[in-house]
Amino acid sequence: MNRDWKKLLAALAAGLGLAVALFVAAGWCLVAPGEVVVVRRLGRLVEPPWGPGLHWRFPLGIDRLDRVRSDAVRHVTIGQAGPPGGDQEPSTGEALTGDLNLVRIQATVQYRVARPVDFVLHAEPAEHLLARSAEASLTRALARRGVDAVLRSDRQLIARDVERDLQADSDRLALGAAILGVSLTDARPPVEVAADFAAAQAAESHRDRRVHEARTHEAVQLTAAKAQAEAAREAARADATRTTLHARAEAQHFLTLMAEARRSPDLTIRRLYIETLQDLLDRVRRKLILPPGDSLDLTVLGLRGDDAPRRGPPLDPPHTREPGPHP
Length: 327
Known about the structure:
single chain, 327 residues, alpha+beta, Tetrahydropterin Synthase, Chain A, 50% helix, elongated
């Protein structure tokens, strides 16, 4: 009898040991790189979340594990570019611009999980709230602009506005998401008025091209005019410098003659007289040199009758008195 009890106790101990071993073995959890595990033990959050590595949990449903990839880039698409399907409302994907025009628009939001606890513990799925918040942000951004800006020039500005507003909403609602970027994948008018919008955009493109050409021509003309004006100013400066230097040289020459005239008036006057004659004779094409008192037949010069000048007495250098001192 005692032997049977011993065997039973041994079997129970072995079974209990095996159960404990299985319990312990079932509790091991491996967290992969780039992954975060949020643990709730009997519904209560266990802080901090588990990072990459080997961890142990209570099995049998005591601990609930939620695995979240914190390094994965997630996408949420809002709006609709094409026509709605048969099970969708006719206005699906349409939004109203600030000038009361309808556009069909589609955008993609890129985000990652920055705070896994907030992302997991939210009462409503965070992705659903993020999509609704993105739609609201996009609607606000479109309401601040006209249809031409939405379809053409302000698409990048709209994306930045949606990204900023969406990040603010994510922080306010504690969604635990970090917005990486927003891109407008499509923006077009409704099919019913697409042709009219295309014609209007073509006319606006033609206008913008003409304005750009005019501005280019203006820039070229302004550059050429500035270059000509600068060349004229440089020429005027050079002429002014040359004229000033010439005037200074003439003044210095005059002062030198005045000094020589005070020292030797007769010699100075005779030298000036000779220099003047030399200058005049250089400009005369035909020259005749006669001794004093000789007559001249002026017909050799092509003069006849009264056209011939009368011969006067020979020229003598003028005599002047020596200039006195300046007052």
